[in-house]
Design brief:
Layout lengths: L4 E12 L2 E12 L3 E5 L6 H8 L8 E9 L2 E2 L5 H7 L4 E4 L3 H4 L6 H13 L3 H14 L5 H4 L9 H13 L5 E5 L7 H18 L2 E6 L2 H7 L2 E6 L2 E7 H6 L4 H8 L16 E3 L12 E14 L4 E16 L4 E5 L6 H8 L7 E6 L2 E2 L5 H10 E4 L13 H11 L5 H14 L16 H13 L5 E5 L7 H18 L2 E5 L3 H7 L2 E6 L2 E7 H6 L4 H8 L26 E2 L9 E6 L2 E5 L2
Parallel strand pairs: 3-8, 3-9, 6-7, 7-8, 14-19, 14-20, 17-18, 18-19
Antiparallel strand pairs: 1-2, 1-4, 4-5, 9-10, 11-23, 12-13, 12-15, 13-22, 15-16, 20-21, 21-24, 23-24
Helix pairs in contact: 4-5, 7-8, 14-15, 14-16, 15-16, 16-17
Length: 589
């Protein structure tokens, strides 16, 4: 069977200096097949892919073993010949297309460059080849889009451009390094389907690098699980999912969402209502009423206002003490803007925010100070939200001193206690943020938020950038802290596994509007709004046996709504229906 292998990796060992990071990895990929290389950060999967491409600096990395493309050994190939292999025989799709595309070069020119170098086409032939590739990856109106720059494309469309560049020279092998991790689930589903379709057309072998076992269940033929540079488990995708041998593989499989996609068929009739009515008579901890956030768009010679982005339109919800409300939706849906508007990082155009029944006055410094004591925020990137030159102990102490909540001695004592409470060694109080891992930095941010003894914490994609095992630890920590301090969370995320785990209620955003809200099991198990159904249907399956059994509700791209409206536009008043106690659905207006 070895003659059918497109790529054969045998006893691959990679060292940086005296440190070995990959310990004897072996795998083969045949034509038209997909091998999923699975593992968390530091497992050695991306280093393995760079070794195949010979992109590791020879004076830094030492590679042993064998890497053969068909029967040709790549490790001993002269660099001049290797340059023809890269892009021509082996192509790579990276995780973040915006950093892989040249921002000052038109998309068509970047695609043409690849084709010109590897296929030698010129003039009209080259132009037609570029258009053909854009049509192949389903980019609409390619004649116009080739003239545009990457920033004018959405994340999903940029990834399609990267796929087009990877396929442009009919490569024998495509290495896809976390190509869907940065994408929303609906865009991810479209991208995975497109990759699979194109693979069937071209017969290309694919090495798919990921940490998401749901994606593996969707696309892989075989699976290789790596941890700390070692092979943990290897086999066909059906065997690995049906009979995982290692506890680590079991934990990766267990991290996929379980409720989503299991829609109940017994749906109660919808009852029209005037507005969302609260289930309890008690005053909620946080109440958001008719919130609107708008951003003017300037243009033209004089820079006048040409339109207005209705980022958040007429949104209302509440959160009780000790409750977690999950806010879900695609990028650009307005969910993060809501969190920022509540804490005054985005200007509120109209509407009200109330804490324990008291309205927040965003023009009054005393009211803002009180709001900041009650509400804290944890951001997606913990490194960006910590001062790189400030010790972690100082960053936790500072807000307590600024708000005069404690003396320096009291603040010092609370800081040490908080570090211990979030699972960090208090002796590391004098360390700087760069000395910690991503998961540890997020723990520091949680400790800093808790230092103010807030009533509500807004977690904006707080676990999205973390590995699965670290993510699980942080979610468990947040649940434990909620029980201990009775703190409430507004949990903003597009990660349905995290939403399912931590939230009691779920609110769904679409193009600035709240379209469905209710108890977690109602919204996830019995979604009633078409967008919620589409969002949940896009979640990857949990076992390869489910392939082809799950209906994908794909949006009509031509009818995609835009939040950009003309100046003076007045949105129609929302109308609601009730599916059950506390479960509300926005009706099309």
């Amino acid at each position: 069977m070895s003659g059918n292998n497109v790529i054969s990796v045998k006893d691959l060992k990679i060292s940086f200096g005296k440190t070995q990071v990959v310990h004897g990895v072996n795998f083969n990929i045949q034509r038209g097949k997909t091998l999923a290389l699975v593992g968390e950060s530091g497992s050695g999967k991306s280093v393995t892919s760079l070794a195949i491409m010979r992109l590791l600096a020879e004076n830094v990395a030492h590679i042993e073993g064998s890497i053969k493309l068909h029967q040709q050994e790549l490790l001993t190939l002269p660099e001049k010949q290797m340059r023809h292999i890269r892009g021509g025989k082996i192509s790579m799709i990276f995780q973040e297309p915006m950093t892989s595309l040249n921002p000052v070069q038109r998309v068509g020119e970047q695609l043409a460059e690849v084709i010109r170098i590897h296929r030698g086409l010129r003039g009209e032939e080259l132009r037609e080849a570029v258009l053909e590739m854009m049509r192949k990856v389903r980019i609409p109106d390619p004649e116009q889009r080739v003239k545009q720059y990457p920033h004018t494309f959405s994340g999903g469309m940029r990834q399609r451009v990267m796929i087009a560049m990877a396929l442009a020279c009919n490569p024998d092998l495509i290495i896809a390094d976390e190509p869907t991790t940065a994408l929303d689930v609906t865009v991810q589903a479209q991208t995975l389907a497109l990759l699979k379709e194109l693979q069937q057309e071209t017969g290309t072998a694919v090495l798919f690098i990921t940490h998401d076992m749901g994606v593996v269940a969707e696309v892989a033929d075989d699976v290789l699980v790596m941890r700390h540079g070692n092979e943990i488990e290897k086999g066909s995708v059906f065997n690995v999912f049906s009979n995982p041998k290692s506890d680590y593989t079991k934990s990766l499989i267990a991290a996929t969402p379980s409720l989503v996609g299991k829609f109940s068929g017994n749906l109660s009739p919808l009852v029209p209502v005037q507005e969302i009515l609260e289930q309890n008579a008690d005053t909620p901890l946080l109440e958001v009423r008719d919130l609107c956030v708008r951003f003017p768009m300037h243009g033209g010679f004089w820079g006048g206002v040409k339109g207005v982005v209705h980022a958040v339109e007429d949104v209302s919800f509440s959160i009780k003490a000790g409750e977690t409300l999950g806010l879900v939706g695609e990028s650009g849906s307005g969910k993060s803007t809501i969190g920022k508007a509540i804490i005054n990082l985005a200007a509120v155009d109209s509407g009200e925010v109330l804490i324990n029944g008291d309205k927040v006055n965003y023009n009054d410094e005393a009211s803002l100070s009180q709001m900041r004591r009650n509400i804290q925020m944890i951001f997606q990137d913990p490194y960006g939200s910590l001062d790189a030159r400030q010790t972690i102990g100082s960053s936790i102490i500072e807000p307590m001193l600024v708000h005069k909540l404690a003396t320096r001695a009291e603040a010092q004592e609370k800081m040490l206690w908080l570090l211990e409470r979030v699972g960090l060694d208090p002796k590391r109080q004098d360390s700087l943020p760069h000395e910690f891992s991503g998961g540890q930095r997020q723990r520091i941010c949680i400790a800093r938020a808790l230092a103010m003894s807030p009533k509500l914490i807004i977690a904006d994609e707080a676990v999205s950038a973390l590995d699965i095992s670290i993510k699980a630890q942080i979610i468990e920590l947040m649940i434990d802290l909620q029980k201990e301090f009775n703190v409430s969370y507004l949990f903003i995320s597009h990660d349905m596994a995290a939403i399912e785990k931590i939230c009691q209620r779920v609110a769904v955003m679409y193009v600035g509007e709240l379209v469905e809200i209710g108890n977690r099991d109602d919204v996830i198990g019995q979604p009633r709004h078409p967008y919620t159904q589409r969002l949940l249907s896009a979640i990857p399956i949990t076992h390869p046996d489910q392939r082809g059994t799950k209906e994908r509700l794909v949006a009509d791209q031509s009818a995609a709504r835009s939040p950009l409206k003309p100046v003076g536009y007045v949105a129609p008043k929302s109308s609601w229906s009730m599916a059950g106690p506390g479960h509300y659905i926005r009706m099309a207006g």
